[in-house]
Design brief:
single chain, mainly alpha, 4 helices, about 55% helix, globular
Length: about 100
């Protein structure tokens, strides 16, 4: 079941300005707002990735995706492919990394 981003409830953050900004960004992205530039979207993905990895390395595990928003297999594959290309990595290298036991 797919749920729009605007209807997903999440815990209230201590910083209400940050929470309001997240609400505005997720609403714009959920509406497929073409007004967001490629540069801004890349910045969001970059910072979210760094934050996510840092928390994993600190021992906190949670899915990178909201449990109430369906990410299709196609979306996961496209994103994974682009992430690997951006880091100049091949699928083989990912397999090797995983077989060594990634340090997360």
């Amino acid at each position: 079941m797919s749920i729009s981003i605007e209807t997903v409830s999440r815990p209230v953050k201590a910083d209400s300005k940050l929470a309001a900004a997240v609400d505005r960004v997720t609403a714009a992205l959920g509406a497929d707002d073409a007004g967001i530039s490629a540069e801004a979207l890349a910045l969001l993905l970059t910072q979210a990735t760094r934050c996510y990895v840092q928390r994993l390395q600190q021992g906190e595990y949670f899915s990178p995706f909201h449990p109430d928003i369906e990410i299709t297999a196609t979306e996961a594959m496209i994103l994974s492919t682009e992430v690997l290309k951006s880091a100049d990595l091949q699928l083989f290298e990912l397999g090797m990394w995983q077989s060594m036991g990634s340090p997360t």
